[in-house]
Amino acid sequence: MTEVEVHVAGKQLAVRQGPETMFTRSVAEAMIEVACALDRPPACGVLPDGVRVWRERGDAVAVAVEVPPHARTVRWLTDDSPASFGRGARYGRFYLAFPYVVLLLVFRRGALTGQQQLYYRRAPLVDGEDLLLPAAYNVAAGYGLKCWLCLASMSDVAPLSWSAKVRSVVDHTLTAAWNKSSDEHEGNSLYSTLRRLDPRIATPHAWEEATRRNPRFVLDIEWPAANTTVAAELGAMLDRVVTPARVATASDLAGLLARTGRGGRR
Amino acid sequence: MERTRHRRDDDRDDFLAPSPRGVEGLPEPEPRTVQIIWGPLIENLALAGMTVAEARTLLRAPFNLAPHAATLVNGSPVGADHRLVAGESLEFRREFGEKGGTAT
């Protein structure tokens, strides 16, 4: 029996058997069909705690981590602090309630890439993907992102397992002291921008008082819509780290195989 | 470890309860559950009735608790003999650096 052959030329892919052309596709369509048909389990195996979305592209991984509503004791820069962060900064310990916190993170070769954001939600991600702007220090509009999260003082997470990596970022985000570093470096922070949104979060003292009255009050606050979604943000963040493959022609396909190192000379 | 809704007093292996889900109309915590917070870990567990010391002993291995982490209930320091009440939040706390470019 004559072998089936696949011919790729220009923008067309043709499947032939002997003299007969069985069917044709555009290269772009065919690549999507092939990609969808292949089984590619997440590199992490079992998803780490809290991870609700996991996307891979090349050597990059984008995740959405959801932290449930809770109240915790945090160190928060006092309004009379002589320094915005670092040496001389003055912190108070405050018991503050948080709504759902969504962290969007892109790693490359297991390391953080600077593509990281923090948003709030009033409902879990299983109920929808729209995101809300957070009242948080160290979260700023910057670097092309609406809610960039400062992780500058974190140590390298590349050597860690996926579970430890995610836990380490969440731990740093929730427990390292909150300050006005982003107000200095990025020229803004979402807490400075949004603290007048509701008198219950206007100061850390007011926030703590409201938390002690009702730790769920943060789920009632009308946090401003970020007018974006988890999928849109993760996609855009991934695009900045790994350019999405465009495979619409035979030349694109050859280039992709050459870049991935699997198209070497025989 | 198997997760169940309620802890039987005579079976401490059966202490884990599901985390709450939903927000607008967020269900109230399960009866007998206490919210446990340790760094990135946030779990609602059926620990009501236990003392803080008993809870610490029970959670030390599964949560990898630091032996001397301070304990707070609903944000206030408590002693080891504090008996947990359903709906309370038990936080094991440690200091951990600061955010930003220049840590002190």
Descriptive account of the structure:
- The complex is a heterodimer of chains A (266) and B (104).
- Chain A is 25% helix and 33% strand.
- In chain A, a hairpin with a 2-residue loop joins strand 4 (51-57) and strand 5 (60-67).
- Chain A has helices spanning 27-37, 162-175, 181-185, 190-194, 204-213, 230-241, 250-259; strands spanning 4-9, 12-17, 20-26, 51-57, 60-67, 70-77, 91-98, 100-108, 111-121, 130-132, 139-142, 145-149, 225-229.
- Chain A has one domain (45-244).
- Chain A is elongated.
- With 104 residues, chain B is an alpha+beta fold.
- Chain B has a domain at 30-93: Roll (Ubiquitin-like (UB roll)).
- Chain B has one helix at residues 52-63, and strands spanning 34-38, 41-45, 70-73, 76-77, 89-93.
- In chain B, strands 2-1-5-3-4 form a five-stranded mixed sheet, with no helix packed on it.
- The longest helix of chain B has 12 residues, at 52-63.
- Residues 1-23 of chain B have low confidence and may be disordered.
- The A-B interface holds A 49-50, 67-73, 75, 85-87, 89, 91, 95, 99-100, 121-124, 126-127, 137-138, 150-153, 167-168, 170-172, 174-179, 181-182, 185, 208, 211-212, 215-216, 219 and B 19-24, 26, 35, 37, 39-42, 72, 74-76, 89, 91, 93-104.
